[in-house]
Amino acid sequence: MFITIVKALSPDKSSQDLAESQDLIREIRDIANRQGVFILAHNYQPPEIYQIADLIGDSLELARSAQETDADTILFCGVDFMADTAKILNPDAKVLIPDPQAKCTMAHMAGEQAALQLKNQYPDAKVVSYVNTTTATKAVSDICCTSANAIEIVESVDSDQVIFLPDRNLAAYVSRFTGKEIIPAPGYCYVHDEITPQSVTAMQMLHPDAEIIAHPECRPTIIDMADAVCSTSGMTRYCRDTSASSFIIGTESGMLHRLRSEVPGKKFFSVAGVCEPMKRVTLEKIKKCLQTGSGEVLLESKLMDAARRPLQQMIEVSKSRQSRSCRTRDEIRKGL
Ligand code: 13P
Ligand code: SF4
Asked: How far is the CA of 23 from the centre of ligand 1 (A)?
């Protein structure tokens, strides 16, 4: 299966790179088709990687499709915790990551020791861990969540106290919608944490009609300014469906490629930087990975089994509770 999602890209330096990479893209698709490799790519990947992907999505969409595919091999264009999640949910598949050093910095903050320490302090609390965590952290958690379902997951746990890790910003966002006591860990994503009210205001002065769309990993001050707060794929749906025609985007700047290709005719402006780990994946590394089988995700089976439980729990809850990957300013204000 090869779904071409990219329809149009802005005429910037990246499209020139894209033209130069066409041979490599064709070669990679040929190998992947011959070997039956299923290629997943996160929304933050660069446009040339979109071209070779079978599916582009947010963390939840990618985790679900990694679990559902019947391909023997999954090649994951993203960061470590995403490839690990694919392996945990589909342990019989071979999962390859083109650069094993593509490590989400937040996923390595507030790990399993922090979870156990907080659990010691709050023995009645349930542990909700964001998928942006290591396998060891997931293994000591009650349930996982992503940016698309964090509120619904927290509401689903049978405890009035919830230890939420590692993202303090996502924890603060979730606490706006629940009566439960949220006990946050001190982690954060450097890309989102660095977005400032000043940079958003400066962009707003240049584009006064633009709506502000933020990712829930942003600081509370940015959430307060936003017209809508969404997961990365939620942003695509929101921007396509709303009547506004220009948007200031508060998430990793690579998201603009997805938005421009999926929502042609509207304008997008970024106030965020680049996620360096995400950009470690290149066409050259992908080709090598396919040719040599390098970059295989290998996890200890007991640890995988322990980490599968909270992930599976998340997937089950997501089936029964409709997750809303986007909330508007009004809904956020009302805590709905
Ligand atoms: P999404 O699940 O919204 O794609 O977010 C993943 C991520 O790492 C954001 O920084
Ligand atoms: Fe991790 Fe932040 Fe990169 Fe997302 S943007 S993968 S949270 S470092």
From this structure: 30
